[in-house]
């Protein structure tokens, strides 16, 4: 069944912009000048992800950013202001960092695919956000880094996502040196999927989103959950788990419809429930 494409833009201002185009939700970080992950922005992003998870209409989520930077990570000015608190900022630091971790976990558990669209610098928790998304597409001028070590703060929470997206030794190189890598190096490291010229970024991301949105919602939900669960299992355990998932998927209505459509040489009509 073809999706009816509609377009709706919501919230013209605020730290997070929302656009809905057919089955695709676009969330744009809008916290100038550096799109730092302030409490306000992270709360808005988490709420938007929660709403997407509950939606039957949204099939793909894109996380983009306004301005020249994707995200400079946590708002260090906001955090530093709380060093004057009675606990020297401990409670606020924990709230900030745990909220970011909750967002990263939410992205992985979301039934929809999540695509990061990067144009500019993604650093520290901004790089963590890129690494946490299912796919990442960037411009050829985008750059990435985990520079905490340069200011006496090892990027321990960005490390969790980074070591699960990039190759281990390359992730450690980024974490130990704090140096900025270019788009080509980020692709070599495994941090991004594609590099495109800036003028084609939105077009390429929209194409990926459209292709993914055309697939079975049941299969995408089952497959995404299984992908992340098996990734941390020993290989024999992963196969045992995947066999069970595959059998249950075969029994699902979309698999029955999809296989029947393939054998009958017709387009499938997915169950939207």
Automatic annotation (TrEMBL):
Family matches, as InterPro entries: ClpP/crotonase-like_dom_sf (IPR029045), Enoyl-CoA_hydra/iso (IPR001753), Enoyl-CoA_hydra_C (IPR014748), Mitochondrial_ECH-domain (IPR052377)
Gene Ontology MF annotations: hydro-lyase activity
Known function: May play a role in fatty acid biosynthesis and insulin sensitivity.
Species annotation: Sinorhizobium saheli
Protein's UniProt name: Enoyl-CoA hydratase domain-containing protein 3, mitochondrial
Pfam families linked to this entry: ECH_1
Keyword Transit peptide: yes
Family note: Belongs to the enoyl-CoA hydratase/isomerase family.
Record's keyword annotation contains Protein transport: no
Keyword annotations: Fatty acid metabolism, Lipid metabolism, Transit peptide
GO biological processes: fatty acid metabolic process
Top-rank lineage group of the source organism: Bacteria
């Amino acid at each position: 069944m073809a999706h009816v494409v509609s377009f709706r833009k919501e919230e013209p201002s605020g730290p997070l912009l929302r656009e809905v185009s057919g089955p695709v939700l676009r969330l744009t970080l809008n916290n100038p000048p550096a799109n730092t992950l302030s409490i306000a922005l992270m709360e808005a992003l988490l709420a938007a992800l929660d709403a997407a998870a509950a939606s039957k209409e949204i099939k793909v989520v894109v996380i983009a950013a306004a301005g020249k930077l994707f995200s400079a990570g946590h708002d260090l000015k906001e955090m530093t202001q709380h060093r004057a608190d009675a606990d020297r900022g401990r409670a606020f630091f924990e709230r900030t960092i745990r909220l970011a971790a909750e967002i990263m976990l939410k992205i992985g558990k979301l039934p929809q695919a999540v695509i990061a669209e990067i144009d500019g610098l993604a650093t520290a928790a901004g790089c963590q956000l890129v690494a946490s998304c299912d796919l990442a597409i960037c411009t050829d001028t985008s750059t990435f880094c985990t520079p905490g070590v340069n200011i006496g703060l090892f990027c321990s929470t960005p490390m969790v996502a980074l070591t699960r997206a990039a190759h281990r030794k390359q992730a450690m190189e980024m974490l130990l040196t704090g140096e900025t890598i270019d788009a080509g190096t980020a692709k070599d490291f495994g941090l991004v999927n594609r590099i495109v010229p800036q003028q084609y970024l939105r077009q390429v991301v929209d194409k990926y989103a459209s292709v993914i949105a055309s697939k079975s919602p049941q299969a995408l939900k089952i497959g995404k959950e299984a992908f992340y669960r098996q990734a941390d299992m020993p290989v024999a355990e992963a196969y045992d788990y995947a066999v069970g998932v595959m059998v249950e998927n075969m029994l699902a209505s979309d698999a029955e419809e999809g296989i029947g459509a393939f054998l009958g040489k017709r387009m499938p009509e997915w169950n939207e429930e």
